[in-house]
Q: What sequence folds into this?
């Protein structure tokens, strides 16, 4: 016995989990929260923006701060005298700090490109941190080369 009623098939739209980047099918007209079956993160779909990486997300802030932690640690060690030399302006400590600035964008972009290891919001924070590092690091290196070119006296 066959039914004469037409089969109702609801159109689906593909959404991406902001935590694990898994593609999920969601009803086209649905607006609300969806629970990812892979990572069990809940996220919003529908009327609101599907861009869930907000500055309210703790993983975003951690991703923003992790790449800059090495230059901060080096600057603390230099300022406390642990990495100090005998020269008047501590050139060795300054050199350690300047080299640590090179690692900042390397660590940031390394985290940002590792999609299988870290959640999306963490990687987004690291990507923004790396872009900030390119600007700040570039300006600091221009200053450093100007300082060295001007001559260093004791």
A:
């Amino acid at each position: 016995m066959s039914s004469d009623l037409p089969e109702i098939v609801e159109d689906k739209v593909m959404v991406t989990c902001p935590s694990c980047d898994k593609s999920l099918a969601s009803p086209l007209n649905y607006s609300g929260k969806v629970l990812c079956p892979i990572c069990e993160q809940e996220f919003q779909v529908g009327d609101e923006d599907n861009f869930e990486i907000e500055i309210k997300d703790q993983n975003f802030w951690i991703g923003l701060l992790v790449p800059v932690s090495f230059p901060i640690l080096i600057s603390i060690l230099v300022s406390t005298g642990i990495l100090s030399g005998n020269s008047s302006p501590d050139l060795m400590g300054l050199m350690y700090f300047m080299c640590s600035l090179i690692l900042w964008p390397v660590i940031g972009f390394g985290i940002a490109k590792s999609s299988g290891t870290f959640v999306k919001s963490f990687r987004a924070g690291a990507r923004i941190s790396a872009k900030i590092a390119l600007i700040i690091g570039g300006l600091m290196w221009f200053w450093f080369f100007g300082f060295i070119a001007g001559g260093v006296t004791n």
Observations:
- The CA atoms of residues 108 and 127 lie 6 Å apart.
- The beta strands are 12-16, 23-27, 32-35, 42-45.
- The longest strand covers residues 12-16.
- Helices lie at 58-65, 69-80, 91-112, 120-149.
